Amino acid sequence: MEAELRWHRMQVWACGLCLVLLLAGCCPGSEATFVGVCYGQCVTNLPSSQKVVQLLQAQSIPRVRLFDADSGVLRALAYTNIQVVVGMTNSEMSGVAQSEAVAYAWVSNNVAAYLPATRIIAIAVGSEVITSPLNISSLLVPAMINLNSALVSAGLDGQVKVSTPHAMGVIQNSFPPSAGSFYSSFVPVIQPLLSFLSQTQSFFMVNVYPFYTFQNENPRVSLDYALFQPKTGTVDPNSGLVYFNLFDAQVDAVYYALEALGYSNLSLVITETGWPSMGYASEVNVVNFQNAAAYNGNLIKHILQKNGTPLKPGIGIDTYIFELFNEDQLPGPTSVRNWGLFRPDGTKYYDISFGGQGSISGGTVPSGNPGQIPIVNRTFCITSVGASFTGLQSALDWACGKARVDCSAIQPGQDCYLPDTVASHASYAFNSYYQDSGMDPSSCSFSGLASITSLDPSECGSLSLVNEGFLRVTPNLKGPWRSNLQVVALTVSTKFDRLIVRMFVCQTS
Question: Domain of life here (predicted)?
Fold first, then answer.
């Protein structure tokens, strides 16, 4: 009974709400173009929902994409005028796809319950479902149809659209853009999906990541081209169109793929894009604060100026930057956990503005850093002063065993085997574990056997500590041994009321 009463109330005010939104110029089809953010919650020390919403308001961020239908966040967004894309998780799709009643209940509990106070504008059904290894793509269109039917029953289909975010992996050819096409194996699902989007006047959602394309196709794709900073354009040999950034080229590849299936009039929404600010040491020239600031800052400028793309100039594309915070609890490489724009306390990792056209000239790194020096915010984990042999051996065994660190490089005959000392091997394993853990300080403890340093051992050739008068020099085995040493850092600390001086040295050619 309560659900039925709620549904009735939704029908009463739905028409009035649409009128309000139209007067505000914010209904689907409006000429305004927005840049929002994705809000993932796999974050240590996650702020309260109220503080998150205050951050969005303080930064003039007009839209947010949620990966689920978190009730606390949806309540906190009430009366803020922030437009919201609510996510349905992949695991929820099965029940919704198989039952109209389940879809009705989902819309009632996760959409209707918060309208009109919270401005929900779309439901994102699953995430990259078609390319998911879970083999659930057959559930996608039925789930979308049932959700839309529930919205129609409530009179909400005019302002709440149903779509699903796709990975660029659905596109078989993206270079040149005019060759854009979907993988034929996906077409049996994509064809009815596009028909649904067209009939409901919804939009095609896609996640566009020039960062990954640059990584996979370098050197064919230049870093400047990926960061909206090209020196020259790239000509599509088929269309003759000139592209000045990789983002536009990827977006047009999607447009061409849609056109090939007869859906050239569908609008696009970019549900994820961005650039990580931290990764492995080997990625330092690509993954750093400066490049993240450049990409996201230039992206915002590009979108808000409503440049469109070479294929569709002047056509705005609503875009969501991935993401609000670093999701440091996610598994995988360090870069996976470092896409955030803000720290949990609300401070920026680098300076970009969502404030509007004409006020953005690309992002900048925090003040106090010379512009010509890449800002990498990187630290490393090495064996500590006074570490015992038995302790290091035990910690090394744990790292290479239970912790599953890849220790193949320190096996006999491999690049990092020499010098064949427990301390050297332990430093390698400790730092590998530390980097894989996203440079979490707690991952460089090893019961007091390890220390954090800002000096990169791989760049120095070797890095050791003067340990209470004993100096161990590690040769750079990739070149001839030379005796030239350079003191590169000196740190002073206290432990048990004893002064400890740490002098780092490295081999130079």
Answer: Eukaryota
The answer on 277 and 225 residing in a single domain is yes
Q: Which residues contact 456 (CB under 8 A, 6 or more apart)?
A: 281, 378, 380, 463
Catalytic residue among 92, 128, 323, 327: 128
> Model confidence over 135-171: pLDDT tens digits?
899 999 999 999 999 999 999 999 999 999 999 999 9
- What b-and-e string marks burial along 173-191, b requiring 16 or more CB atoms within 10 Å of the CB? ebbbbbbbbbeeebbebbe
Same domain, 264 and 316: yes
Q: How far apart are CA 138 and CA 190, in angstroms?
A: 10
Q: For residue 242, what is the DSSP state?
A: E
User: Is the residue at 349 inside a domain?
Assistant: no
Strands 464-467 and 203-207 come out as: unpaired
pLDDT at 446 over 80: yes
Report the alpha-carbon angle 372-374-379, nearest 5.
Answer: 145
Give the bridge partners for 467, in sequence order.
Answer: 470
Has 4 been annotated as catalytic?
no
* More confident position, 295 or 11: 295
- The pLDDT of 269-286, averaged and rounded, is 90
- Distances 41 to 44, 67, 70, 329 between C-alpha atoms, Å: 9, 9, 10, 9
Is 272 catalytic? The answer is yes
Active-site position among 4, 31, 272, 459: 272
Instruction: Kindly report the CATH number assigned to the domain that includes residue 58.
Output: 3.20.20.80
Could you tell me if 138 and 268 lie in one domain? yes
Whole-number pLDDT of residue 342? 96
Over 262-302, what HEC string results? CCCCCEEEEEEECCCCCCCHHHCCCCCHHHHHHHHHHHHHH
> Does some domain include residue 343?
no
Q: What is the pLDDT of residues 40-66, one digit of tens each?
A: 999 999 999 999 999 999 999 999 999
Residues 6+ apart with CB under 8 A from 479: 461, 509
